[in-house]
């Protein structure tokens, strides 16, 4: 595939466009700035940075004939934080980097915040800091807007507000025709629902309008402890999720973490938040009172949303090799404890891998989150029907060298398959795969169920009849290959 004719046509159509080519400093800087080097390993022929909505429109109209003939392909990048290679970059094609579309406007009287597709959540929290307003956005300040808002997204407020995508009241999107539409509950509601979980299958979203809510400080942070306490902490997590009236203000994660540079042994980590300014709320006591704990690493305190997102970003290594994989399990302690044992065993042979930092992380989808999805107009994830608490099982790894890719990805893949088989044998496996944490060999769209996939496919055919965003933009998780 030679995109040179397409690139020439784009340069002619957008004479003042920012086009960066291999060998230039700008190209090198942008292409190395993904969260995962697996994404930076891909080398596009050209990186295009639109300066305006009109630039995006012209791009789509110009690229379409070349893409439909198979002469050129493209990728779309928001923050570039999703680690699955190809989601936001492309080998020998054109990467559309939206980072210049970063405007943020608070419309307090309408209870809205409008966020450009190239912004990061840190800039959003800076803008809202001290205003008494919150938004259900990314938990780390370096997270981009797009992936989380199109694929699900977990925020500090998920128990109370649903997935991040459930909080998008309007998407401004450039369709395959080059037409700009707003998708919301009143205009193009079928597209609005499809975009809530449907990924990059329908067009290039240029702006996200989120609902806001009154919000002050929150209480939370990290508690590190020794590994033998993991089973009891998993039991605490399941007990909290299955209480008759669990709090809608908690956000909980229980992890096994390993960092070869810090310790020869994995440790336990509870990441806990209570989304009101309440010190030591009783709901968090079981997770905070774990013993023996490694007290010098504890970071629990009252904090602003901005501070919480800064804390979370501190644990994210930029520009290293990185992969995520996940499945979903019912909130059953025995199945989740068995999963933790499988992971601990799988970790042993790879502990010597240079720069290895990895985790097994349990994150709940509480019943209140799933109910909120329905109340907010529904999404594409296919989960609303369960209304029972579920738990995401995430395997996350960072490592240094390309030569270790095979070992780490094989360890993760094998461990996940064993965890899946174990959960299935206990009748605790749920088919849902969370797109934000999926690796290239997983099929999140298929995991949403037949009804959701049918709806997504119908919407794709209606708004993109030639399949530009299926064939021309091949990265990410497609509806039909």
Poorly predicted runs: none
Discrete helix count: 17
Largest sheet: 8 strands, antiparallel
Helix percent reads 25-40%
In brief, what are we looking at here?
The protein has 17 helices and 19 strands.
Notes on the protein architecture:
- The chain is of the alpha+beta class and 481 residues long.
- It is 32% helix and 23% strand.
- It has helices at 4-13, 25-31, 37-40, 53-68, 121-128, 146-151, 158-161, 189-195, 230-241, 285-288, 305-314, 333-347, 367-375, 405-425, 444-447, 450-463, 468-472; strands spanning 18-21, 46-49, 74-77, 94-97, 104-107, 112-116, 133-134, 168-174, 180-184, 204-211, 213-214, 218-225, 250-259, 267-274, 301-303, 321-330, 357-365, 390-399, 429-430.
- The longest helix is centred in the C-terminal third of the chain and has 21 residues, at 405-425.
Q: What would the keywords be for this entry?
A:
481 residues, alpha+beta, 8-stranded antiparallel beta sheet, 17 helices, 19 strands, 32% helix, 23% strand, globular
Topology:
Layout lengths: L3 H10 L4 E4 L3 H7 L5 H4 L5 E4 L3 H16 L5 E4 L16 E4 L6 E4 L4 E5 L4 H8 L4 E2 L11 H6 L6 H4 L6 E7 L5 E5 L4 H7 L8 E8 L1 E2 L3 E8 L4 H12 L8 E10 L7 E8 L10 H4 L12 E3 L1 H10 L6 E10 L2 H15 L9 E9 L1 H9 L14 E10 L5 H21 L3 E2 L13 H4 L2 H14 L4 H5 L9
Parallel strand pairs: 2-4, 3-4
Antiparallel strand pairs: 1-2, 5-6, 6-10, 7-11, 8-9, 8-10, 12-14, 12-15, 13-14, 13-17, 16-18, 16-19, 17-18
Helix pairs in contact: 1-4, 5-11, 9-12, 12-14
């Amino acid at each position: 595939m030679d995109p040179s004719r397409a690139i020439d046509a784009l340069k002619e159509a957008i004479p003042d466009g920012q086009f960066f080519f291999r060998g230039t400093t700008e190209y090198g800087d942008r292409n190395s700035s993904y969260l995962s080097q697996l994404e930076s390993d891909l080398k596009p022929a050209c990186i295009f940075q639109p300066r305006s909505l009109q630039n995006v429109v012209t791009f789509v109209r110009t690229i379409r004939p070349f893409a439909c003939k198979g002469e050129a392909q493209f990728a779309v990048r928001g923050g570039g934080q999703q680690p699955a290679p190809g989601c936001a970059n492309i080998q020998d094609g054109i990467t559309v980097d939206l980072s210049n579309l970063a405007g943020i406007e608070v419309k307090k009287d309408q209870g809205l915040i409008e966020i450009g597709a190239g912004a990061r959540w840190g800039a959003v929290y800076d803008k809202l800091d001290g205003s008494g307003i919150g938004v259900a956005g990314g938990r780390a300040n370096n997270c981009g807007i797009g992936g989380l808002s199109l694929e699900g997204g977990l925020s500090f407020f998920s128990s109370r507000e649903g997935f991040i995508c459930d909080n998008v009241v309007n998407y401004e999107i450039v369709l395959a025709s080059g037409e700009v539409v707003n998708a919301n509950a009143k205009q193009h509601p079928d597209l609005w629902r499809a975009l809530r979980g449907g990924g990059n299958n329908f067009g290039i979203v240029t702006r996200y309008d989120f609902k806001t809510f009154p919000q002050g400080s929150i209480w939370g942070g990290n508690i590190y402890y020794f590994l033998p306490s993991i089973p009891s902490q998993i039991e605490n997590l399941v007990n909290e999720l299955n209480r008759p009236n669990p709090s809608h203000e908690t956000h909980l994660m229980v992890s096994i973490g390993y960092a070869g540079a810090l310790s020869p042994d994995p440790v336990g980590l509870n990441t806990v938040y209570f989304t009101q300014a309440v010190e030591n709320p009783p709901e968090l006591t079981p997770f905070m009172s774990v013993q023996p704990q490694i007290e010098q690493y504890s970071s629990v305190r009252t904090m602003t949303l901005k501070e919480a997102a800064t804390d979370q970003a501190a644990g994210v290594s930029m520009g290293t090799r990185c992969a995520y994989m996940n499945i979903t399990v019912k909130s059953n302690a025995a199945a989740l404890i068995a999963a933790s044992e499988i992971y601990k065993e799988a970790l042993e042979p790879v502990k010597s891998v240079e720069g290895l930092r990895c985790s097994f992380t349990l994150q709940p989808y509480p019943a209140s989150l799933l109910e909120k999805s329905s109340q907010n107009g529904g999404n594409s994830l296919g989960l609303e029907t369960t209304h029972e608490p579920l738990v995401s099982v995430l395997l996350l790894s960072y490592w240094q060298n390309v030569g270790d890719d095979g070992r780490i990805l094989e360890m993760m893949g094998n461990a996940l398959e064993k965890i899946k088989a174990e959960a299935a044998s206990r009748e605790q496996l749920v088919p849902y795969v969370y797109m934000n944490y999926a690796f290239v060999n997983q099929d999140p769209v298929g995991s949403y169920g037949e009804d959701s996939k049918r709806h997504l496919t119908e919407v794709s055919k209606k708004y993109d009849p030639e399949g530009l965003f299926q064939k021309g933009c091949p990265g990410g998780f497609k509806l039909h290959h």
